Amino acid sequence: MSEPNSRRPFHVIIVGASIAGLTLAHCLSNTGIEFTILEARSDTYPDGAGLVILPNGARILDQLGLYQDVLDQGQCMVSHSTWLGTGHLLRRVDAGRIRYLRRTDYPVLIISRRTLLGILYTRLQRSLLFFNRRVVRVVSSPDKVTVHSADGLSVSGDLVVGADGVHSTVRKQMWHHIRKVHDANSSSRWLIEVPLTDSFAGIFGVAQSIPGLDRGDIHRTYGHGWSTLLMVGADCRVSWFMSISRIMMPGLVPRHTSDRACVSRIVEPFLEKHVTSNVTFGEVFNRSDSCIMVSLEEGFQNRWSWSRFVGIGDAVHKMAPNIAEGANCAIESAASLANHLVSFVNGSPLYTEDRLISMLKAWEDSRKRRTRGLFIISQCAIRIEATTSWVLKLLQAFLAQCHETGIGLLTSITSRTARVDHLPLPLPQQSSAHQLLNKEHENVWSMQLSLLSLATATSLMFYVLHALLL
């Protein structure tokens, strides 16, 4: 017989030891909420390219006591340069000139995904994390949810959280349950899973140090049907990413491959293209120790939760990597969900399904507005940067000139930026909590005024010109 709600702690089953999943676990630690993490991999430190920790993610990591490790093992951005594939410089922005960064007290940090996952894992109570537990089925009932793994084992709890990436098993199982309960032929968009799109392929790699690419520098390059992003880390190794429009690729290419010969054939037309004035993409690619090609799926789900299911991170809002918000949005969503779970548990000892559904709906509504805006920006950015249309190329120079403002807006902390409510705000540089609060509200108005002209011009130009070209 199961223990009565009033006599047992709330139990969350987290599927996926991802950035989102591990962050959620840290947020739930010491709250009285129990959690179990199930991870399909056998290795806690998977290979992967670099990522950027922006102030919205950094503040949460700071609250969790992880930021100093990230700062010690990462590299602060020194400059951001935008180039054309011909080697022509469009704009260079020094990090010190971006006023929003100065006001948040957090720099833009370059760090490898492997390193960040290592920090999150090392500082976690690892007895609660189980590897080689690939989830194959989730069964939900009015009083519990049971997660079954491929090894024949199962775990029961009150809520299952899908932090298992863009091809989330939890999301698929959630929609399977929705279709069983509701009419499969329903035309309501709330009852239909949003299909993922893959208009671009992405190639990620890590290269040895290259003369002319200095620590802390980020280089973004626009090309005809392609774009690149290079980030030079603390060890001078170069984490790079290339997005290629599908129309620029051969007909038969795999959706996912790490085969060097296959990737070499795909990037061959771009080897002579410049990524800076004196460095070609070929130099970067030939000095790379590893590289992998994947489809760049994009998708923003209409529904993030149902019954005792909920998704966070790429499972529900997979965006292109061009604006570097994927990991940071995942960190935010994890912290925000933890806030609602803590309030839910503290509100009543009865963990009824109706109360849970109401709480998850409130969380979902609170997160969607901010996350959808960033998702749309990422959609626009990748299509403008890697356009094959001469009309949309007019936007490239415009965006390059606005990068200082754009970086400032994306890195600004406002009152809508999630944080861990049950933990104190960090006080960098001896700032007071009152000053930090003033900064948040000040940034809201400043950001909205700055964003108005930029968003209006960019959105109008992009969507109107795109419509004309269809």
Feature tags:
FAD/NAD(P)-binding domain; 22 strands; 470 residues; alpha+beta
CATH architecture of one domain: 3-Layer(bba) Sandwich
Strand order of the largest sheet: 6-5-14-15-16-13-18-17
The CATH topology of one domain turns out to be FAD/NAD(P)-binding domain
Number of E-type strands: 22
Biggest sheet overview: 8 strands, mixed
Q: Helical stretch count? A: 13
Structural class: alpha+beta
Instruction: Please bin the fraction of helical residues.
Output: 25-40%
Flag low-confidence runs.
Answer: 429-457, 460-470
Overall form: globular
Looking at CATH, the homologous superfamily of one domain is: FAD/NAD(P)-binding domain
Reading off the top of the CATH hierarchy, the class of one domain is best stated as Alpha Beta
Note the beta-strand portion. Answer: 15-25%
Mean pLDDT: 85
Structure description:
GO terms for molecular function: FAD binding; monooxygenase activity. Keywords: FAD, Flavoprotein, Oxidoreductase. It holds the Pfam family FAD_binding_3. By secondary structure, this protein is of the alpha+beta class. It has a domain of 302 residues: FAD/NAD(P)-binding domain. It is 38% helix and 21% strand. It has 13 helices and 22 strands. Strands 6-5-14-15-16-13-18-17 form an eight-stranded mixed beta sheet. A six-stranded mixed beta sheet has the order 8-2-1-12-21-20, with helices on both faces. Strands 3-7-4 form a three-stranded antiparallel beta sheet. Strand 5 and strand 6 form a beta hairpin. It is globular and about 65 Å long.
